[in-house]
Design brief:
CATH topology of the largest domain: Serine Threonine Protein Phosphatase 5, Tetratricopeptide repeat
Shape: elongated
Number of strands: 8
CATH class of the largest domain: Mainly Alpha
CATH superfamily of the largest domain: Tetratricopeptide repeat domain
Largest sheet: 2 strands, antiparallel
Oligomer: single chain
CATH architecture of the largest domain: Alpha Horseshoe
Helix content: 25-40%
Number of helices: 6
Order of helices and strands: EEHHHHHHEEEEEE
Strand order of the largest sheet: 1-2
Length: 297
């Protein structure tokens, strides 16, 4: 054993370096202590505080530009470019497929351009939205009858008769309830859909580009309601006017038998023995039926 001159510890004779301090017994610099390497702690990337770098907010994706196809269709109509108007109305319907006004605008354009088959399809689509609209059924009947006279196909005649029957049935139902059949009890003029403007020129007073509209005489107002938008038959009330029965002078009794149901000659045939007025059925009032009007379809 020998003693390390550096740390005074005992070290085996065959050791070149001190096992305690690392002294080199045979080095050229005998008596010097080797320099120990400093231990450096390396931090992993996820250790320690992370420095946050401020960045600009992300740029949102570009939004699709909104296009008002309905306005473009109306502008094309005023210019007289009816096919462009049809295309824009179609695009507008893609965004709002249940818009009744857009469907009817396409129907009127198709009929103006003499495309009666397409106009009939538009009426079918409108009837799916308003199945109890008497005016739509009347318009469909008229259009299908025109197609029958043009093409001579019986299917158009049959469909026209069915539409006429449906329109008459709806008319009877409305009148029996005292409701106005001219506006389907809505109170709105169905020719202009309550807007008060001429449906042929769109309120512009110009027809087919540069000709004064013959339907409104260039005023742009609906010729049926004079621009009020109200049904002219019920004056916007949706109900029919009740008038005093002239047959019984408002009494409600049969004028022939004076309400007895019989007279000197026996059974009263006029009231069939009921004693009620045969015209007003004992109510004393009758409905003031509107005059026949042009179908709005």
């Amino acid at each position: 054993m020998r003693i390390c001159p550096n740390c005074s510890k005992q070290v085996a004779d065959d050791y070149r370096f001190c096992s305690v301090c690392g002294f080199d017994f045979y080095g050229s610099g005998a008596g010097s202590v080797p320099i120990k390497a400093k231990k450096v702690k390396v931090q992993a990337p996820h250790e320690g505080k992370v420095k946050h770098i401020k960045t600009a907010p992300p740029i949102p994706p570009p939004q699709p530009e909104y296009i008002d196809h309905r306005t473009q269709a109306e502008e094309a109509y005023i210019r007289g470019d009816y096919y462009a108007a049809l295309d824009n109305y179609k695009l507008a319907l893609m965004n709002d497929p249940y818009n009744f006004d857009l469907i009817m605008a396409r129907e009127r354009l198709f009929e103006m351009l003499n495309h009666k088959d397409e106009a009939a399809e538009c009426l079918e689509e409108a009837l799916r939205l308003r199945p109890d609209d008497r005016e739509l059924w009347s318009g469909k009947s008229r259009l299908l009858l025109l197609l029958y006279h043009e093409k001579g196909e019986q299917r158009y005649k049959k469909a026209s008769d069915e539409a006429t029957e449906r329109a008459e049935s709806l008319t009877t139902q409305l009148i029996s309830k005292g409701l106005c059949p001219s506006c389907n009890s809505s109170g709105d003029c169905l020719k202009c859909l309550g807007r008060g403007i001429c449906h042929e020129c769109g309120g512009t007073g110009v027809y087919k580009g540069a000709v004064k509209c013959p339907f409104c005489d260039g005023t742009g107002m609906c010729d049926r309601c004079d621009g009020s938008g109200k049904c002219p038959d019920c004056h916007g009330t949706g109900r029919l006017e009740m008038l005093k029965c002239e047959r019984c002078d408002g009494s409600g009794v049969c004028p022939k038998c004076q309400g007895k149901g019989k007279h000197l000659l026996g059974h009263c045939k006029e009231c069939d023995g009921s004693g009620y007025c045969p015209v007003c059925k004992g109510k004393g009032k009758v409905i003031n039926l509107p005059s026949p009007s042009e179908p709005s379809g």
